[in-house]
Write a structure and sequence with these properties.
- Helices cover about 75% and strands about 0% of the residues.
- It contains 13 helices and no strands.
- Helix 8 packs antiparallel against helix 10.
- The termini are far apart.
- The relative contact order is 0.12.
- The N terminus is likely disordered.
- Keywords: Cell membrane, Membrane, Olfaction, Receptor, Sensory transduction, Transducer, Transmembrane, Transmembrane helix.
- It is a multi-pass membrane protein.
- One of its GO terms (molecular function) is odorant binding.
């Protein structure tokens, strides 16, 4: 039987809806089987298209069909990486001693619940928008033959099977809106959980200076409480860093392929929009819904990475440096110095030495898009 290969996570997941859409679906046997069929089918179609291009290639054909040809490599990367990313990321989170959202008080619990409501609402709305784009792509338009090489090939070489094969091909557009943004959602999901854990650790540390503790007159008892909180903070901080390193280690290879195939897709798409001589008026709704959904998913994951960096900056600048350590004993001061040393450098989700998930990456992408558009427009 095709039973699910996943079980309920070993941690309290406030983002259960988020996890279901972007992780759990892809960890089931039926989904893995479907992705494997799609993977081999697209590889076969790419091989056929490459051979046909080499035999009867013209400039017009390259302009018309290059975007879908390049997008297929990005789709292949997504299909191959998504279930592996889901398994690796869940394993990484389960290796971390995750606190429940009510572990440090009702204030933080309500704050996290409010953010999870926003995040779950976002993923539902953006998924609906992506599915709308998929439905629009599945609905036949007169110029589809000039855009999708597979449809043109079916009509030319398999006219007797045209209706059936074209219907099957168009059904794939209903699946892709779930698969394509999945790596972005998975990354955002991990970022949110790390940020929630970090927020609770900071609140746990901030309570060191609350009156309930500072009013303790017994110095020994007071320093024992301080020591316990400092050690818990160091352990939690180290656990988050260790889990993130393990997750990013599995993600590095995929980042390289996503970068190459994504850049190839972007260049070919811009070139197509500038050079295509047919009419795209009937397809504007397709392009608009697809672009808006993709941009929102990209913004979500970049903002999630930036918020982690901002949180670690706050940990050092506003929390650690503001603690009143004058009453602490020598042992606690040493532990405090260790914690300060570990927190001086802001934590970033680094995919390489020069690429981190933050606003700088978004700015670099926008500059690259502008440069590509300028060059291609000049070439036209």
């Amino acid at each position: 039987m095709l039973l699910p290969t996943w079980q309920k996570p070993e941690y309290d997941d406030c983002l259960w809806l988020f996890r279901t859409i972007c992780l759990d679906i892809f960890r089931t046997k039926p989904a893995k089987l479907l992705l494997k069929i799609l993977l081999y089918t697209i590889i076969l179609l790419n091989i056929i298209q490459s051979i046909m291009f080499l035999k009867i290639s013209t400039k017009a054909n390259w302009i018309k069909y290059l975007p879908m040809y390049c997008s297929s490599f990005f789709i292949l990367t997504t299909i191959y990486s998504t279930p592996r990313m889901a398994d690796a990321f869940v394993k990484g989170l389960e290796s971390l001693d995750m606190w429940s959202i009510n572990a440090v008080g009702s204030t933080i619990e309500q704050k996290i619940k409010r953010e999870t409501l926003y995040l779950n609402t976002f993923i539902i709305l953006n998924t609906c928008l992506a599915l709308t784009s998929g439905i629009l792509f599945a609905i036949p338009l007169p110029d589809d033959r000039e855009i999708f090489y597979t449809l043109a090939t079916i009509e030319d070489y398999l006219p007797q099977w045209k209706n059936v094969l074209c219907f099957v091909y168009r059904c794939v557009f209903l699946i892709l809106p779930i698969i394509m943004p999945a790596p972005f959602y998975i990354t955002g999901y991990i970022c949110c959980h790390m940020r929630f854990q970090g927020t609770m650790v900071l609140h746990h540390l901030e309570q060191v200076d609350q009156e309930l503790i500072t009013n303790i007159t017994d110095e020994k008892k007071y320093n024992e409480i301080i020591k316990k909180r400092l050690i818990v903070t160091i352990q939690k901080h180290s656990g988050i860093l260790r889990a993130s390193r393990n997750i990013l280690k599995d993600f590095h290879t995929f980042v390289y392929f996503f970068s190459v195939t994504g850049a190839l897709l972007l260049i070919s798409l811009i070139f197509f929009l500038i050079s295509f001589e047919g009419s795209l008026e009937e397809g504007y709704s397709r392009i608009a819904t697809m672009v808006i959904s993709a941009v929102l998913a990209s913004i979500h994951v970049i903002v999630s990475g930036q918020l982690i960096e901002d949180m670690t900056n706050r940990a050092f600048d506003e929390v650690l440096k503001s603690l009143d350590w004058s009453r602490w004993n020598k042992e606690n001061k040493k532990i405090y110095l260790i914690l300060l040393a570990n927190s001086v450098k802001p934590f970033r989700l680094k995919f390489s030495e020069s690429i981190s998930l933050n606003y700088s990456l978004a700015l670099a992408i926008l500059k690259s898009i502008y440069s590509i558009m300028s060059v291609l427009w000049y070439m036209k």
